[in-house]
Amino acid sequence: MRQFLMAFGLVVLGTSALAEEAALVNVSGDVFMAGSSVQSESGADDLFLVGQTVRAAGEATGSAHLAGRRVDLSGAVGGDLYALGMDVTVTGDVAGDATLSGYDISVGRVGGDLRATGSQVTVGGPVGGYAFLAAEELRVDGVIEGDVHLSARQLEFGPDARIGGQLVLYEETPGKLEVPASVIAGERIERRDIESRDRHMRPFGWAGYIGSFLSAVIVIAALAALIAALVPQQLAAMRRRILDAPFRTLWLGFLTQSAVIGSAVLFAMTLVGVFLSPAALLVAAIGGFAGYVVGIYAFGVGLLLAWGRDEPASIGQRALAAGFGALVAGVIGLIPVLGWIFLLAVSLAGVGAITTWIFRPQFFGALPSE
């Protein structure tokens, strides 16, 4: 089990996020904390906090990654800030860029660029770079040095609000939003129809986001239950192999996907087999998704075993384990860069386990039984 946790790195965050007390991991100055109520008051290089209530008062010399229902950052951040929550309050200075998403967002000084999307967004400023803002209700109280692209149904400017660059307004009815001359000169304002804005500029909707997220969790759980009903012994064996030898299955999955995708290139090079290339890519895609389902199931069972639960014996228990694994993995996947690497590792480990199951009877002997 320890090897499994080492292989997937941030599993500690996912398991402890539902615990009463926060868990702390310090890796070369980078701080990882998770729990129901998380508070970080000491300094750190990079900061990773996940919980229901997250408070960061200590200084982070690097980047900060915060996720929770209520997020409060009062400490300074020397690098970039990424925060996701229902209520996000940033009173500490951010030297780099800030990317914020939530329902109610309040942010102060940002040295770099600001990207914020929510229902109610307040920008205290100043902001040293550009700003991308999307909200139902938006208020700007400070100075934004760069360009501003914003979409809002209600827009307010405080007495100290200033925009140093160009202002691009995305409106349902161009000309409806009023911008005082004290904020920006009229010749630097561009008004566009709301349909022309990019997808990422659309106002944040929690209902749609959460609905899509939970739908994905349900689909993964249903597929795992289907596999458990069809091949319960084999699924249990693949899960054990991932937990017992995560690095081996991860490496084998990488080799398998590389071989399948590489075969598509070789088919294309022969000209005669160019029509087989799409089939090879399709196999790689299907295999990757199947590997993700198996990997997520193993991940969920691993979390339950770490809590002292018994191995799942029924189809319902296996579906629950897969759903729990998909839920925690989805939260971890929100972490920029590291989250994508984690999900890729889960998929490749699953592919490796499937490959071992298919070819082991010929090359490696029998699989262990349930």
UniProtKB/TrEMBL annotation:
It comes from the Bacteria. Residues 211-355 form the DUF8173 domain. The chain crosses the membrane at residues 206-231, 251-276, 282-307, 319-335. The keyword Translocase does not apply. Keywords: Membrane, Signal, Transmembrane, Transmembrane helix. Residues 1-19 form the signal peptide. This is Cytoskeletal protein CcmA (Bactofilin family). It comes from Actibacterium naphthalenivorans.
